[in-house]
Amino acid sequence: MTLPTPPTAPRTALDLTHVLYDESSHVSLALALLTLSPILLNPAYAALVVQTRELLFIEMWAGQMLCEAFNWVLKHIIKQERPSYDMGEGYGFPSSHSQWMGYFATFLLCHFSFRHRFVSTGWHALDLVWKIALYIGVASWAGAVALSRFYLSYHTAPQVLWGLGIGVLFGATYYILVEVIPSRHPHSFPGRARTAILVNPLFTWFRIRDGWAVWGDSGTEVQWLRWRQEWDRQRSGTGHSTKELKHD
User: Quick one: pLDDT at residue 119?
Assistant: First the structure.
């Protein structure tokens, strides 16, 4: 049986994963790969939501999509072209990659600063080095993606800087609205809305939770200690853990 031949139609490239770079430059190749890295955030969000059921990650993902939609609106209002027509279709102001990463980095760093509490290693200097490295790493990733858009000639410097700035402003404002205000002012409208979501039967059925409302690290340390205690109990074969693990 012969399959019917599909009708011939105009074809277009999927710009989502289509990047042009200077093949003679290793730096250009590295930045071309780096400029694709924001795509990885969507499956990461999905995995975190399914695995942890944390309301925070649902909010962060929703905010990321709202920020992207805002970028689309701005582009179609301003209608500023890219620096080169060879780099694909679509308007260039503001840079969506830069705005995407500006939002992501700002929301995450705000969470590390306002709500998340890292479990101490027992060494203050090591704790400090870890936090500094984490902050620098997240900020550097966002900055490097923004730089790649300029280096690869997809955007002008103002398009990149405005995109990054809008993403930072959007991320900070959104985090204050959905996390800082509800946690510090539970009787405010955002606080009551958050409580209504968490007690909603549908969200309860999906086991959606706010771990940071109970534990500074969302319960990671407590869960690990419980796992270790049960694991020790099973290994001992006595029905009792071989070592009591306590958590302050």
Answer: 83
